[in-house]
Amino acid sequence: MKDQYGRKIDYLRISITDRCNLRCTYCMPEEGIVCIGHDQILRYEEIITICRAMAQKGFKHLKITGGEPLVRRGAAGLIRQLKAISGIETVTLTTNGILLEAMIQDLADAGIDGINVSLDTLDAKIYARITRGGNLNQVLAGLKAVLRYPQITLKVNCVLSGEDWEENAISVAELAKDLPIHVRFIEHMPIGPEPNKEVTRQDLVKEVLERAYGTAVLSERPMGYGPSVYYRFEGFSGKIGFISAVSHKFCSECNRVRLTADGRLRLCLQSKESVDLKAVLRGNHPERLGKIIEQAVYRKPREHHFEEQSIETTGMSQIGG
Ligand code: SAM
Ligand code: SF4
Protein backbone atom coordinates (compact mmCIF):
# COMPACT_ATOMS: atom_id res chain seq x y z
CA MET A 1 0.00 0.00 0.00
CA LYS A 2 1.02 3.65 -0.41
CA ASP A 3 1.56 6.13 2.40
CA GLN A 4 0.69 9.83 2.37
CA TYR A 5 3.96 10.61 0.54
CA GLY A 6 3.30 8.05 -2.21
CA ARG A 7 5.88 5.55 -0.94
CA LYS A 8 5.08 1.89 -1.49
CA ILE A 9 5.15 0.23 1.95
CA ASP A 10 5.35 -3.55 1.67
CA TYR A 11 7.98 -4.64 4.20
CA LEU A 12 7.30 -5.48 7.86
CA ARG A 13 9.99 -6.14 10.45
CA ILE A 14 8.60 -8.25 13.26
CA SER A 15 10.28 -8.34 16.64
CA ILE A 16 9.31 -11.62 18.28
CA THR A 17 11.12 -10.95 21.56
CA ASP A 18 12.98 -8.16 23.33
CA ARG A 19 15.20 -10.70 25.11
CA CYS A 20 18.75 -11.45 23.97
CA ASN A 21 21.60 -13.83 24.76
CA LEU A 22 24.19 -11.05 24.14
CA ARG A 23 24.59 -7.51 25.44
CA CYS A 24 26.14 -5.52 22.58
CA THR A 25 27.42 -2.29 24.08
CA TYR A 26 25.58 -0.03 21.60
CA CYS A 27 22.30 -1.91 21.82
CA MET A 28 21.70 -3.01 25.42
CA PRO A 29 22.96 -1.88 28.81
CA GLU A 30 25.17 -4.39 30.64
CA GLU A 31 22.47 -5.20 33.19
CA GLY A 32 19.97 -5.85 30.38
CA ILE A 33 16.61 -4.16 29.99
CA VAL A 34 13.33 -4.48 31.82
CA CYS A 35 11.76 -7.06 29.55
CA ILE A 36 8.17 -7.03 28.44
CA GLY A 37 6.01 -9.38 30.58
CA HIS A 38 5.16 -12.71 28.94
CA ASP A 39 1.45 -11.84 28.82
CA GLN A 40 2.28 -8.64 26.94
CA ILE A 41 4.34 -10.34 24.21
CA LEU A 42 2.36 -11.10 21.07
CA ARG A 43 1.54 -14.78 20.78
CA TYR A 44 2.52 -16.43 17.51
CA GLU A 45 -1.12 -16.78 16.44
CA GLU A 46 -1.55 -13.03 17.00
CA ILE A 47 1.51 -12.29 14.85
CA ILE A 48 0.06 -14.50 12.13
CA THR A 49 -3.33 -12.73 12.28
CA ILE A 50 -1.60 -9.36 11.96
CA CYS A 51 0.56 -10.58 9.07
CA ARG A 52 -2.49 -11.91 7.23
CA ALA A 53 -4.10 -8.49 7.55
CA MET A 54 -0.86 -6.82 6.40
CA ALA A 55 -0.61 -9.18 3.40
CA GLN A 56 -4.15 -8.20 2.41
CA LYS A 57 -2.96 -4.59 2.41
CA GLY A 58 -0.14 -5.46 0.02
CA PHE A 59 2.74 -6.32 2.36
CA LYS A 60 5.02 -8.87 0.69
CA HIS A 61 8.19 -9.13 2.74
CA LEU A 62 8.60 -10.08 6.40
CA LYS A 63 11.77 -9.97 8.50
CA ILE A 64 11.89 -11.71 11.88
CA THR A 65 14.05 -9.88 14.39
CA GLY A 66 14.33 -9.03 18.10
CA GLY A 67 16.07 -8.91 20.62
CA GLU A 68 17.50 -12.20 19.51
CA PRO A 69 14.72 -14.02 17.66
CA LEU A 70 16.30 -17.47 17.98
CA VAL A 71 16.01 -17.40 21.79
CA ARG A 72 12.23 -17.58 21.46
CA ARG A 73 11.07 -21.17 21.26
CA GLY A 74 9.24 -22.13 18.08
CA ALA A 75 10.67 -19.38 15.84
CA ALA A 76 11.05 -21.83 12.93
CA GLY A 77 7.42 -22.92 13.28
CA LEU A 78 6.33 -19.29 13.09
CA ILE A 79 8.40 -18.79 9.94
CA ARG A 80 6.78 -21.84 8.34
CA GLN A 81 3.31 -20.39 9.01
CA LEU A 82 4.24 -16.91 7.79
CA LYS A 83 5.57 -18.40 4.56
CA ALA A 84 2.16 -20.00 3.99
CA ILE A 85 0.30 -16.66 4.02
CA SER A 86 -1.08 -15.77 0.62
CA GLY A 87 0.70 -12.71 -0.78
CA ILE A 88 3.85 -13.09 1.34
CA GLU A 89 6.83 -13.51 -0.98
CA THR A 90 9.78 -13.62 1.39
CA VAL A 91 10.39 -14.33 5.06
CA THR A 92 13.88 -13.59 6.34
CA LEU A 93 15.62 -13.44 9.71
CA THR A 94 18.13 -11.20 11.47
CA THR A 95 20.17 -12.95 14.17
CA ASN A 96 23.38 -12.62 16.12
CA GLY A 97 24.19 -16.15 14.91
CA ILE A 98 24.94 -17.69 18.30
CA LEU A 99 22.18 -20.32 18.01
CA LEU A 100 22.23 -20.56 14.24
CA GLU A 101 24.20 -23.78 13.84
CA ALA A 102 21.76 -25.61 16.10
CA MET A 103 18.70 -24.21 14.35
CA ILE A 104 19.61 -24.02 10.69
CA GLN A 105 18.01 -27.32 9.72
CA ASP A 106 14.63 -26.27 11.19
CA LEU A 107 14.88 -22.82 9.59
CA ALA A 108 15.72 -24.29 6.19
CA ASP A 109 12.86 -26.80 6.50
CA ALA A 110 10.52 -23.93 7.36
CA GLY A 111 11.44 -22.28 4.05
CA ILE A 112 13.41 -19.26 5.25
CA ASP A 113 14.54 -17.16 2.26
CA GLY A 114 17.40 -15.22 3.80
CA ILE A 115 19.41 -14.87 6.99
CA ASN A 116 21.29 -11.77 8.13
CA VAL A 117 23.96 -12.37 10.75
CA SER A 118 25.26 -9.44 12.80
CA LEU A 119 29.02 -9.52 13.08
CA ASP A 120 31.13 -6.43 13.74
CA THR A 121 34.60 -7.97 13.81
CA LEU A 122 36.48 -11.21 13.12
CA ASP A 123 38.72 -10.72 16.15
CA ALA A 124 37.52 -13.01 18.97
CA LYS A 125 38.64 -10.65 21.74
CA ILE A 126 37.04 -7.58 20.18
CA TYR A 127 33.89 -9.61 19.50
CA ALA A 128 33.69 -10.66 23.15
CA ARG A 129 34.19 -7.03 24.20
CA ILE A 130 31.52 -5.58 21.88
CA THR A 131 28.96 -8.28 22.69
CA ARG A 132 29.97 -8.52 26.37
CA GLY A 133 30.93 -12.16 26.35
CA GLY A 134 29.87 -13.53 22.94
CA ASN A 135 31.83 -16.43 21.45
CA LEU A 136 32.92 -15.66 17.88
CA ASN A 137 33.40 -19.35 17.04
CA GLN A 138 29.69 -20.00 17.52
CA VAL A 139 28.83 -17.29 15.00
CA LEU A 140 31.38 -18.57 12.48
CA ALA A 141 29.97 -22.08 12.87
CA GLY A 142 26.52 -20.59 12.24
CA LEU A 143 27.69 -18.92 9.00
CA LYS A 144 29.27 -22.15 7.83
CA ALA A 145 26.06 -24.04 8.60
CA VAL A 146 23.94 -21.61 6.53
CA LEU A 147 26.30 -22.02 3.58
CA ARG A 148 25.19 -25.65 3.32
CA TYR A 149 21.84 -24.29 2.05
CA PRO A 150 22.47 -22.37 -1.18
CA GLN A 151 18.78 -21.43 -1.44
CA ILE A 152 19.19 -19.18 1.65
CA THR A 153 20.62 -15.74 0.88
CA LEU A 154 23.26 -15.05 3.53
CA LYS A 155 24.22 -11.52 4.56
CA VAL A 156 26.49 -10.24 7.32
CA ASN A 157 25.61 -6.91 8.95
CA CYS A 158 28.53 -5.01 10.44
CA VAL A 159 28.41 -1.86 12.58
CA LEU A 160 31.89 -0.36 12.71
CA SER A 161 33.23 1.70 15.59
CA GLY A 162 36.24 2.24 17.80
CA GLU A 163 39.89 2.57 16.94
CA ASP A 164 40.05 -0.89 15.32
CA TRP A 165 37.38 -0.11 12.74
CA GLU A 166 39.69 -0.22 9.70
CA GLU A 167 41.02 -3.72 10.50
CA ASN A 168 37.49 -4.87 11.32
CA ALA A 169 36.12 -3.50 8.04
CA ILE A 170 38.81 -5.21 5.96
CA SER A 171 38.52 -8.56 7.70
CA VAL A 172 34.71 -8.71 7.76
CA ALA A 173 34.56 -7.64 4.08
CA GLU A 174 36.92 -10.49 3.29
CA LEU A 175 34.12 -12.95 4.13
CA ALA A 176 32.56 -11.88 0.81
CA LYS A 177 35.74 -12.62 -1.07
CA ASP A 178 35.81 -16.40 -0.96
CA LEU A 179 32.29 -17.15 0.24
CA PRO A 180 28.84 -16.37 -1.21
CA ILE A 181 28.10 -13.93 1.61
CA HIS A 182 26.98 -10.31 1.13
CA VAL A 183 28.56 -8.03 3.72
CA ARG A 184 26.79 -4.79 4.62
CA PHE A 185 28.26 -1.98 6.66
CA ILE A 186 25.65 -0.20 8.74
CA GLU A 187 26.27 3.25 10.16
CA HIS A 188 25.65 3.49 13.87
CA MET A 189 22.42 5.41 14.48
CA PRO A 190 21.77 7.61 17.53
CA ILE A 191 19.53 4.97 19.10
CA GLY A 192 20.22 2.98 22.27
CA PRO A 193 22.67 3.21 25.17
CA GLU A 194 25.45 4.93 23.19
CA PRO A 195 23.54 7.55 21.22
CA ASN A 196 26.56 9.83 20.86
CA LYS A 197 28.90 7.12 19.57
CA GLU A 198 30.84 8.27 16.53
CA VAL A 199 29.50 7.32 13.11
CA THR A 200 32.02 5.57 10.86
CA ARG A 201 30.83 7.09 7.61
CA GLN A 202 30.20 5.03 4.52
CA ASP A 203 32.59 7.08 2.37
CA LEU A 204 35.50 6.40 4.73
CA VAL A 205 34.77 2.67 4.89
CA LYS A 206 34.56 2.48 1.11
CA GLU A 207 37.89 4.28 0.80
CA VAL A 208 39.57 1.83 3.19
CA LEU A 209 38.11 -1.17 1.33
CA GLU A 210 39.17 0.21 -2.06
CA ARG A 211 42.73 0.56 -0.77
CA ALA A 212 42.64 -3.11 0.29
CA TYR A 213 40.62 -4.66 -2.54
CA GLY A 214 40.67 -2.29 -5.55
CA THR A 215 37.89 -0.25 -7.15
CA ALA A 216 34.34 -0.82 -5.96
CA VAL A 217 31.88 -1.03 -8.84
CA LEU A 218 28.25 -0.11 -8.21
CA SER A 219 26.13 -3.24 -8.43
CA GLU A 220 22.58 -4.62 -8.36
CA ARG A 221 21.20 -5.51 -4.95
CA PRO A 222 21.00 -9.23 -4.20
CA MET A 223 17.68 -10.51 -2.79
CA GLY A 224 16.47 -7.81 -0.42
CA TYR A 225 14.19 -4.84 -0.31
CA GLY A 226 16.01 -2.40 1.91
CA PRO A 227 18.03 0.75 1.56
CA SER A 228 21.48 -0.78 0.98
CA VAL A 229 23.66 0.38 -1.88
CA TYR A 230 25.80 -2.48 -3.17
CA TYR A 231 29.23 -2.67 -4.78
CA ARG A 232 31.25 -5.46 -6.29
CA PHE A 233 35.00 -5.90 -5.88
CA GLU A 234 36.97 -7.80 -8.51
CA GLY A 235 37.26 -11.48 -7.57
CA PHE A 236 34.67 -11.35 -4.76
CA SER A 237 31.89 -13.96 -4.56
CA GLY A 238 29.58 -11.77 -2.47
CA LYS A 239 28.76 -8.08 -2.68
CA ILE A 240 29.58 -5.28 -0.30
CA GLY A 241 26.68 -3.08 0.79
CA PHE A 242 26.28 0.11 2.76
CA ILE A 243 23.32 1.16 4.85
CA SER A 244 23.98 4.75 5.72
CA ALA A 245 20.97 6.19 7.50
CA VAL A 246 23.01 9.06 8.89
CA SER A 247 25.30 10.18 6.06
CA HIS A 248 22.97 9.27 3.18
CA LYS A 249 19.42 9.70 4.34
CA PHE A 250 17.17 7.27 2.45
CA CYS A 251 13.77 8.09 3.96
CA SER A 252 12.27 9.00 0.59
CA GLU A 253 12.69 5.35 -0.43
CA CYS A 254 11.67 3.83 2.90
CA ASN A 255 9.38 0.83 2.40
CA ARG A 256 9.02 -0.50 5.93
CA VAL A 257 7.20 -0.42 9.23
CA ARG A 258 7.89 -2.40 12.39
CA LEU A 259 5.86 -4.58 14.73
CA THR A 260 7.27 -4.51 18.26
CA ALA A 261 7.29 -7.60 20.46
CA ASP A 262 4.41 -6.15 22.51
CA GLY A 263 2.29 -5.61 19.44
CA ARG A 264 2.73 -1.97 18.47
CA LEU A 265 3.00 -1.02 14.83
CA ARG A 266 5.86 1.47 14.76
CA LEU A 267 5.95 3.67 11.70
CA CYS A 268 9.52 4.97 11.75
CA LEU A 269 12.66 3.75 13.50
CA GLN A 270 13.10 7.06 15.24
CA SER A 271 9.59 8.40 15.73
CA LYS A 272 7.70 7.15 18.77
CA GLU A 273 4.48 7.21 16.76
CA SER A 274 2.90 3.77 16.94
CA VAL A 275 -0.44 2.02 17.02
CA ASP A 276 -1.34 -0.67 19.54
CA LEU A 277 -2.45 -3.61 17.38
CA LYS A 278 -2.41 -5.97 20.35
CA ALA A 279 -5.14 -3.88 21.98
CA VAL A 280 -7.19 -4.15 18.79
CA LEU A 281 -6.77 -7.93 18.70
CA ARG A 282 -7.30 -8.57 22.40
CA GLY A 283 -10.17 -6.09 22.53
CA ASN A 284 -11.94 -8.54 20.24
CA HIS A 285 -12.05 -6.21 17.29
CA PRO A 286 -9.93 -8.15 14.79
CA GLU A 287 -12.32 -7.07 12.03
CA ARG A 288 -10.98 -3.52 12.48
CA LEU A 289 -7.35 -4.60 12.08
CA GLY A 290 -7.12 -4.02 8.32
CA LYS A 291 -8.57 -0.50 8.47
CA ILE A 292 -6.40 0.48 11.45
CA ILE A 293 -3.24 -0.80 9.72
CA GLU A 294 -4.15 1.08 6.55
CA GLN A 295 -4.75 4.35 8.41
CA ALA A 296 -1.54 3.98 10.46
CA VAL A 297 0.71 3.15 7.50
CA TYR A 298 -0.78 6.05 5.54
CA ARG A 299 0.42 8.40 8.33
CA LYS A 300 4.04 7.14 8.27
CA PRO A 301 6.31 10.13 8.98
CA ARG A 302 8.20 11.65 6.06
CA GLU A 303 11.68 11.20 7.57
CA HIS A 304 13.90 10.70 10.60
CA HIS A 305 15.82 13.55 12.18
CA PHE A 306 19.06 11.89 13.26
CA GLU A 307 21.00 14.85 11.84
CA GLU A 308 19.42 17.18 14.39
CA GLN A 309 21.18 15.34 17.20
CA SER A 310 17.81 14.07 18.33
CA ILE A 311 18.35 10.82 20.12
CA GLU A 312 16.35 7.74 20.91
CA THR A 313 17.59 6.03 24.06
CA THR A 314 15.34 3.02 23.64
CA GLY A 315 17.69 0.40 22.16
CA MET A 316 17.22 -1.47 18.90
CA SER A 317 16.54 -4.65 20.89
CA GLN A 318 13.33 -3.06 22.16
CA ILE A 319 12.28 -1.35 18.93
CA GLY A 320 13.03 -4.41 16.82
CA GLY A 321 16.12 -3.50 14.84
N1 SAM B 1 19.81 -9.79 17.79
C1 SAM B 1 19.70 -9.74 16.37
C2 SAM B 1 20.98 -9.27 15.74
O1 SAM B 1 21.87 -8.81 16.48
O2 SAM B 1 21.07 -9.35 14.52
C3 SAM B 1 18.54 -8.92 15.85
C4 SAM B 1 18.23 -7.64 16.53
S1 SAM B 1 19.53 -6.41 16.48
C5 SAM B 1 18.76 -5.11 17.37
C6 SAM B 1 19.49 -5.93 14.77
C7 SAM B 1 20.63 -5.11 14.28
O3 SAM B 1 20.57 -3.83 14.88
C8 SAM B 1 22.02 -5.65 14.58
O4 SAM B 1 22.67 -5.84 13.34
C9 SAM B 1 22.69 -4.54 15.36
O5 SAM B 1 24.05 -4.42 15.05
C10 SAM B 1 21.90 -3.34 14.92
N2 SAM B 1 21.94 -2.18 15.82
C11 SAM B 1 21.66 -2.13 17.14
N3 SAM B 1 21.78 -0.85 17.60
C12 SAM B 1 22.15 -0.09 16.53
C13 SAM B 1 22.42 1.30 16.33
N4 SAM B 1 22.33 2.18 17.32
N5 SAM B 1 22.76 1.73 15.08
C14 SAM B 1 22.85 0.85 14.05
N6 SAM B 1 22.60 -0.46 14.17
C15 SAM B 1 22.26 -0.95 15.39
FE1 SF4 C 1 21.27 -8.60 21.18
FE2 SF4 C 1 21.23 -8.02 18.57
FE3 SF4 C 1 21.14 -6.07 20.42
FE4 SF4 C 1 23.39 -7.44 20.14
S1 SF4 C 1 22.44 -6.14 18.58
S2 SF4 C 1 22.38 -6.92 22.10
S3 SF4 C 1 22.65 -9.42 19.62
S4 SF4 C 1 19.60 -7.58 20.08
Task: Please supply descriptive tags for the structure shown above.
single chain; binds iron/sulfur cluster; alpha/beta; 321 residues; 11 helices
Commentary on this structure:
The protein has helices spanning 44-56, 75-83, 100-110, 124-131, 136-146, 165-173, 175-178, 202-213, 277-282, 289-298, 316-319, and strands at 11-15, 61-65, 90-95, 114-118, 153-159, 182-186, 216-219, 229-233, 240-243, 256-259, 264-266, 274-276. The chain is built from eleven helices and twelve strands. The chain is globular and about 60 Å long. 30% of the residues lie in helices and 17% in strands. The two termini are 22 Å apart. The model has no long low-confidence stretch (mean pLDDT 91). With 321 residues, the protein is α/β, with parallel strands linked by helices. The structure holds S-adenosylmethionine and iron/sulfur cluster (SF4). S-adenosylmethionine binds at residues 20, 26-27, 65-66, 68, 94-96, 118, 157, 159, 186, 188-189, 191-192, 316-317, 321. S-adenosylmethionine is lined by residues 20, 26-27, 65-66, 68, 94-96, 118, 157, 159, 186, 188-189, 191-192, 316-317, 321.
Oligomer: single chain
Small molecules (ligands, ions, cofactors) in the structure: S-adenosylmethionine, iron/sulfur cluster
The helix content is: 25-40%
Measured by DSSP, the beta-strand proportion falls in 15-25%
Largest sheet: 12 strands, mixed
Radius of gyration: 19 Å
Shape: globular
Report the total helices. Answer: 11
Write out the strand line-up for the largest beta sheet, numbering strands in chain order: 7-8-9-6-5-4-3-2-1-10-11-12
In N-to-C order, the SSE pattern is EHEHEHEHHEHHEHEEEEEEHHH
**Structural class designation:** alpha/beta
Number of DSSP-assigned strands: 12
Please report the distance between the alpha carbons of the first and last residues.
Answer: 22 Å
Q: In terms of per-residue confidence, which ranges show pLDDT below 50 for 5 or more consecutive residues?
A: none
Query: What average pLDDT do the residues reach?
Result: 91
